[in-house]
Amino acid sequence: MSTPVVQAAPVPVTPSVRRLRAAAVARIVFGVVWAIDATFKWLPGFVHGQTLGKELGKADKITVPVVHQWLELWHAVASWSPAAFAAGTAVIETLIALGLILGAFSSLVFLGSAVFSFGIWSAAEGFHLPWTTPGMTDLGPSVGYIFASLGLYYAAAGSVWSLDTVLQPKLGKLAFLAARPA
User: Fold this and answer.
1) Is the pTM value of this prediction over 0.85?
2) How far is the C-alpha of 107 from the C-alpha of 90, rounded, in Å?
3) What is the C-alpha separation between 31 and 68, in angstroms, rounded?
């Protein structure tokens, strides 16, 4: 005698679940964008520190004293060990990409990528100054990364289709680093 197979009732897809899934898709796509960006950082010219002078050498064009000093600081830090600075940048961007794609430690990754993007915008892009440059059309790409990261954080994009659903209950006091499961 065979036992009948009992199938579970389908889980209704509510608007909030649809929103979380859409946010998860945006998180994964944003992770792919970070992965592409990280791939460029692993190329020999960057990872060996050969392009950092060009990347961080914009201070002479900036006349705002505080911004000029900020850019000089980062140029000096990178000049101490260009290869280590470049490799560190490549590692951080790779970790951000993996965290976004896999949905691991999402809260940390969202906020960390916003802070890191601000660092890129303020140091490597020099806030995209001077804003009086003829033909200027935007404030630089990193500004978008900042707002995308914060938007994904507030959209709870790590709460579905992510490793956080497994990690968060196991992290104990560090559970705040991962997004809460939906």
Assistant:
1) yes
2) 21
3) 32
